[in-house]
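[agent] plan:
  1. take the single chain provided in the ticket
  2. run structure prediction with default settings
  3. attach structure tokens to the ticket
  4. add a short note for the reviewer (M.T.)
[agent] executing step 1
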Amino acid sequence: MSGDNSSSLQGYIDSATGAVQSAFGSITGSNTDKAQGEQTHKQGQVEKDLSHSVGKVGPYAVSGSGGVSKDNSDRTEGSWNQTIGSAKESLGGLLGAEGLKQEGIQQNKEGKGQEAQGQLSDLGGGMTDRVKGAAGSAFAGLAGNKVDQEKYQAQHDTGKTQQRSAEADIQKQSDY
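[agent] step 2 finished; step 3 output follows
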């Protein structure tokens, strides 16, 4: 895990610990335990949310862990094909050109498939890099190899960014 407190696992642990401590405080009548538990729970929620946050500029994504990734080219090209397809469809409908309209519908449909394929590629690749990076970092840490540990941590962070970026785009599309 990164030392930046943006770990999903740490967020879940802190959130659960805080909930238990708050419940214990409620049962025993200890306002201090209850307040500390509520604060730990809130901190855990913030850590979890930060772990899932991704900022995007064009095809590039940056996560709270500092990882940077570039979208699979199918994501960008698929999005572009959807835009051009929608424009053709609208223009064809406006001009009464049924052929142009149908061509636009087809290009839009193909663009959606292409973008989805790129998202799945980024999602799978990101998950793979996270696992390889976490395992490699752990083994390098056990062996005392700080250089490899940092290299694997960077692989993990980049994979996490790639995965979160794909998840965010997939979620955004499912909200429509």
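[agent] step 4 note for reviewer: The longest strand covers residues 54-57.
[agent] ticket updated
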